[in-house]
Amino acid sequence: MLALRLNTPTLRATANRTIGAIRMYTDGPSGGSGSVAQDKSWKNREQAEENMYVLRQEQEKLRKMRETAEKQQKVVDD
User: Fold this and answer.
1) Residue boundaries of the structural domains of the chain
2) Dist CA 57 CA 32 (whole Å)
3) CB 58 within 8 A of CB 65
């Protein structure tokens, strides 16, 4: 037990230096970064999400314009 207590800080310091020095690299786009962006189904899904976002934004703008037009019509009628 005494040996474990004496060596624990040394082991931690060694492990931290070792872990900090390790870097992972890939050999290119074969399964690494960029493979998802090149996937056709991913592009289709992303495009569909963009289209839905734009549609919601346009619907919100139209709703606000209708409300404004109704308020203006009430002012004109009065």
Assistant:
1) 43-78
2) 35
3) no
Cα atoms in the 13 Å half-sphere on the side-chain side of 13: 5
Give the distance from CA 2 to its chain's centroid. 49
Indicate whether this model's pTM tops 0.85.
no
Token match 């390790």: residue? 22
Q: Please give the DSSP secondary-structure letter assigned to residue 30.
A: T
pLDDT at 6 over 60: no
- Cβ atoms of 68 and 62 within 8 Å: the answer is no
26 contacts: CB under 8 Å, gap ≥ 6: 32, 33
CA distance 43 to 49: 10
Tell me which long-range contacts 60-66 makes (C-beta under 8 A, separation of at least 24): none
> Under a CB-based contact definition with an 8 Å cutoff, are residues 74 and 66 in contact?
no
